[in-house]
Design a protein that fits this description.
The chain is an all-alpha fold and 318 residues long. It contains 16 helices and two strands.
Length: 318
């Protein structure tokens, strides 16, 4: 349903140079997990999921807008195996087409049933602001020497988890769920979102570039304070810390290649068994998410799809 509806979105307005990058971005695909979660949450309480489709599309357009600007800020050159918008066109195009995507997202969400519109708009607007807060933390962490695990988890809660939670809550609201179950689904979204982002951080280092859709080691090259780096700096010997800092602080572009930096930092991660730590943290948040779902007073068969998708997210390679 989501993919068909996204494929049907057309922009007839001019100039085409504003809207072509939006169509390009939406055409690149992706997991579509946010709008799918919204429809699944609605479907737990109502057989009529059509009423949640337009706002679900709005959430997906908004998500892709954040990726477009995020890629620009990170200087990323690939997204879903294809050139990013600023790479294919230019940074100014990425900024303005991204802004237009945000407006389109509000237009789609504005087509929500008037009975739920005010509550959904309030929820979405608060979520959008929280995502900006998370992105700002992410950028600030890049120039800070020390970032704690707690600070990092709060950053990814804001940057990633709240939109998943927002979609689930919005879908449940439109479906007519009881208040306490709406909140359980929101918490489920937060916990599965944290697990999802930690999995993304893991795949950025240990994923297969053929399936991941982005270049491996991007976080290492950008000196991002991920869960992996935070714990590596915490557990490393003085010599290992010095190696990491040398790669982070060297300004001579000819001192080493990107591949050398990625290999050196990954080798330290391997030596410190950081892979096991991040996997354990992912499992912790996954178990919390499963507990949140267990609080729903729904027949087990109605939760099957949501449970299956959650398991698939934890086994994903892209």
């Amino acid at each position: 349903m989501v993919e068909t509806a996204i494929g049907a979105i057309r922009f007839e307005a001019r100039p085409r140079s504003l809207f072509t990058p939006i169509e390009y971005t939406l055409s690149l695909g992706g997991k579509r997990i946010r709008p799918a979660f919204m429809l699944m949450a609605c479907n737990l309480y109502s057989e009529n999921v059509d009423k949640a489709l337009k706002p679900a599309l709005g959430m997906e357009v908004f998500h892709n807008f954040t990726l477009l600007h995020d890629d620009l800020m990170d200087g990323a050159i690939r997204r879903r195996h294809q050139p990013t918008v600023h790479e294919k066109w230019n940074p100014n195009t990425a900024i303005l087409s991204g802004d237009a995507m945000l407006i389109v997202a509000y237009q789609l969400i504005g087509e929500t049933d008037p009975l739920f519109l005010e509550e959904i708009l309030t929820l979405f607007t608060q979520t959008a602001l929280e995502i900006c807060e998370g992105q700002q933390y992410d950028m600030e962490f890049e120039i800070r020497q020390e970032v704690t695990e707690e600070e990092y988890i709060e950053m990814i809660r804001l940057k990633t988890a709240v939109l998943l939670a927002c979609c689930l809550k919005a879908g449940a609201l439109i479906g007519g769920a009881p208040k306490e179950e709406i909140e359980s689904l929101y918490r489920f979204g937060i916990h599965i979102g944290l697990a999802f982002q930690l999995q993304d951080d893991f795949l950025d280092v240990y994923g297969d570039p053929l399936t991941f859709g982005k270049n491996i080691g991007g976080d290492i090259l950008c000196n991002k304070k991920t869960f992996l780096l935070i714990h590596a700096m915490k557990l490393a010997s003085e010599q290992q810390r010095a190696v990491i800092r040398q790669y982070q602080q060297t300004t001579d572009a000819n001192a080493f290649t990107p591949e050398e930096k990625i290999a050196a930092v990954t080798a330290i991660y391997d030596d410190l068994k950081i892979k096991d730590l991040v996997r354990a943290k992912i499992q912790q948040y996954y178990q919390l998410a499963m507990y949140d779902l267990s609080l729903l007073r729904q027949p087990a068969e109605r939760l099957t799809t949501l449970l299956d998708v959650s398991r698939q997210l934890m086994k994903r390679e892209s």
